[in-house]
Amino acid sequence: MIPVIAEYWSHTVVFLTVHDILTRECAPLLLNGQLQHFVKAGCHAQPISMALSYAIIAGSVFLKLPQIIKILASRSVAGLSAVGIVLENLAQVFTIAYSMRIEAPFSTYGEGFFGLAQNCLILLLFVPFAPKKPLHFLAAIVPPSLLVPLLRPDVPFPVLAVLQSATAVMFILSRTPQILANFKNKSTGQLAMLSILMAAGGTVVRIATLVQAGVTDVPTLSPHVAGVVLNFILLAQFIMYWGNKAELSEVEKKLE
């Protein structure tokens, strides 16, 4: 009896999982073993896209880890822009709130939660290693605290749409202080190349998965397009200024 029940539940789980991942037209083809028709119909793109989406989310858990390790090892935040990190956090909060309101699949925005948490930790590391400690503490806790009120059902959808539309500009502004500081100092300071490399690759893949999932609205895609351009500029700076070192300048102190 138990083996029969176990087999029933295993088939049920497989059935529900397949139907959750695939469209109504594609699921029967896979369940019936019609793999040739499955591929010809282009059904293979959907599970590949979803696998890539969850790979992005899994990778985002470690996205800022190299940056955090580098700060702790050097006990310095020289070359990092706190203003840029705060703007990035605000953009992530707005994207999460908008995505949850339109009931977008978690696989299309889940990395935002982990990026937000790690950015907050980086801002908290500014407290012992940089001046203006109270401001850095507030900068770490204020943006994520906005998520709760934005998720309230009585917040008008047009408000969330406007905020989401602004995320591309905010993302550009979040990277601009860092890029300008790098150009001025001829150095990338304590910026971690691995984190930027992972972010650049992730944004490229995220655009592909969003398009495959049918998410083609400008407010959702534009931040990722901006991210591709800006992250590759930062990667170019790593190549240009490889081996150069910079101390915390007066300009960077103002940016903090």
Automatic annotation (TrEMBL):
User: Does the UniProt entry include the keyword Lipid biosynthesis?
Assistant: no
Q: Where are the transmembrane segments?
A: 48-65, 77-100, 106-127, 194-215, 221-243
Q: Name one Pfam family in it.
A: PQ-loop
Give UniProt keywords alphabetically.
Membrane, Repeat, Transmembrane, Transmembrane helix, Transport
Q: Where in the cell is it found?
A: Membrane
For this record, the Gene Ontology CC terms, alphabetical, are: membrane
The residue stretches assigned to a coiled coil in this entry are: none
Would you say which domain of life the source belongs to?
A: Eukaryota
- Membrane topology of the entry: Multi-pass membrane protein
Where does the protein principally reside? membrane
Q: Which family does it belong to?
A: Belongs to the MPDU1 (TC 2.A.43.3) family.
* PANTHER family reported in the protein's UniProt record: MANNOSE-P-DOLICHOL UTILIZATION DEFECT 1 LEC35 -RELATED, MANNOSE-P-DOLICHOL UTILIZATION DEFECT 1 PROTEIN
Q: What protein does this entry describe?
A: Mannose-P-dolichol utilization defect 1 protein homolog
